[in-house]
Structures are given as structure tokens and as C-alpha cells.
From TrEMBL:
Signal peptide: none annotated. This is GST-like protein. Residues 18-105 form the GST N-terminal domain. InterPro entries: Glutathione-S-Trfase_C-like (IPR010987), Glutathione-S-Trfase_C_sf (IPR036282), Glutathione_S-Trfase (IPR040079), Glutathione_S-Trfase_N (IPR004045), GST_C (IPR004046), Thioredoxin-like_sf (IPR036249).
Length: 235
């Protein structure tokens, strides 16, 4: 595809400014990773709200960009070799933005791969496990009222993962030490979501994880996070 208008999604969510990056999202823990990263980097972008209440993510236009019917997704009109690129999967998008701009990722190879490691830890561990925890704790509690196993399993797994983070953050400001990276941006919205989204702070004993709590506060209070956490605004 050589132009933004060649992407079918743009017929349903037209670009006001086709020269800048287009973000299709909703302010969920996965969605805000990209808006927060874009705000940190300072790359101009246009955000389009994909409403789950309207099943926007199931429309043929959205599926043409992400056949996996999930936010976030982007189109960058200025992709590799100056040609547009469409991408889904928040981890891939974060890596793309970091590589494109040289920001939010260390320059040295060891730092680079360690950052990727922690992004993968979020995408393969924190996201799916916290997501299943939230499903049973908040959204499907009635379905497991007579069977404690799902809650036990995901509560234990969520606490175990929080323990891994606590160990990493015990002596450092951010996941990669002093440097704020896409690893922080990938993970902190999910940890924040345990209390803000699922209201599960007490159930999970979140107060046990002192370093994690201080780090979430540190990340969430950055101006780019305050802005990115609300993008795109819900209806
Ligand atoms: N692995 C994906 C997960 C994305 C994801 O689960 N997005 C959720 C919102 S947080 C979604 O779009 N759900 C809509 C649906 O499943 O229909 C990523 O990191 O981008």
C-alpha cells in the first residue's frame, strides 16, 4: 500500500491529517501503552476511538487492519522506506516506535534486548494473567461462585508476577534502572489497572509490593502518562 487512503479502515475512521500517524484505540491497559509512548516521544498522531459498546473492533474496516479484532492498532504513513505501514499488537507497536525514533529504548545491545525481554514478559505474562484474573474477579464472578479454583489460580499467578516485578524494582527507579523505557510503559498500566480498573487492591494484597507501588506512581504521574491515559477520550 502506498497511501494512507489505500487502507480500508480509513473509510470508516477518516484521517483529518493523513500525513501523521493514525492510532485506533480505547483507553484500556493495552490501548494506553501506545498513546503514552507517543506522548513521551512527541510524535504527532491522530487518535480514533474504537468503541467496544458498538463492536467497532468487529467491523470489516477494523478487521482489515487487525484480523485479531483487538486494539491498539496503528498506521504510520511514514513507515520504513517512507511507505505506510499498518501494525497491531501493542508490544510490536512499542518496539516499532522506539526503533523509529531511537527513544524509550537503550542504545546498547544488552540494554536493548533486556528491554525487549521485559516487554515480552508483559505481553506473554502480565497481560494474559492479569486479564484472566480481572475476568473472573470482576466480570464473571457469578459464573465461578461455586468453584474457587479459577480465582485461586489467577490470584496466585497475579501475586507471583507482582513478586517478580518487586524484585526487579527493589533497587531501581524503573524496570531498566535509571532509564524510562517501553518496558515501563508496557507494564505499569496493567499494574495500575488492578486497583483502578478491577478494584482488586485489597484482594491481591497490593500494599505488600512497596517498590511496585512507588514505581506505578512514578510512571503514572509523568505528564505524558497523565495525557496518554485518557486517549482517545471515551464517548
Ligand atoms: N496482545 C494484544 C492484546 C490486545 C487486547 O487484548 N486488547 C483488548 C482491549 S485491552 C481488546 O481489544 N479486546 C476486544 C475484543 O477482544 O473484542 C496486544 O497487546 O495488543
Amino acid at each position: 500500500m502506498s497511501r494512507l487512503s489505500d487502507f480500508p479502515i480509513t473509510s470508516r475512521w477518516p484521517a483529518k491529517n493523513p500525513d501523521i500517524l493514525q492510532l485506533y484505540s480505547l483507553p484500556t491497559p493495552n490501548g494506553v501503552k501506545v498513546s503514552i509512548a507517543l506522548e513521551e516521544i512527541g510524535l504527532p498522531y491522530e487518535a480514533h476511538l474504537i468503541s467496544f459498546s458498538n463492536d467497532d473492533q468487529m467491523t470489516p474496516e477494523f478487521l482489515s487492519l487487525n484480523p485479531n479484532n483487538k486494539i491498539p492498532a496503528i498506521i504510520d504513513p511514514d513507515g520504513p522506506e517512507g511507505k505506510p505501514i499498518g501494525l497491531f499488537e501493542s508490544g510490536a507497536i512499542l518496539l516499532y516506535l522506539a526503533e523509529k525514533t531511537g527513544k524509550l529504548i537503550p542504545n546498547d545491545p544488552v540494554g536493548l534486548y533486556k528491554t525487549i525481554q521485559w516487554v515480552m514478559f508483559q505481553v506473554g505474562g502480565i497481560g494474559p494473567m492479569f486479564g484472566q484474573f480481572g475476568h473472573f474477579y470482576k466480570y464473571a464472578a457469578d459464573k465461578v461462585a461455586n468453584n474457587p479454583y479459577p480465582m485461586e489460580r489467577y490470584t496466585n499467578e497475579a501475586r507471583r508476577l507482582l513478586g517478580v516485578l518487586e524484585g526487579q524494582l527493589m533497587d531501581s527507579a524503573f524496570i531498566m534502572g535509571d532509564e524510562y523505557t517501553i518496558a515501563d510503559i508496557a507494564i505499569f498500566p496493567w499494574v495500575r489497572g488492578l486497583s483502578e480498573g478491577y478494584n482488586a487492591a485489597e484482594h491481591l494484597g497490593l500494599s505488600d509490593f512497596h517498590a511496585v507501588n512507588a514505581w506505578v506512581e512514578r510512571c503514572a504521574s509523568r505528564p505524558a502518562s497523565i495525557k496518554g491515559l485518557e486517549i482517545p477520550p471515551r464517548d
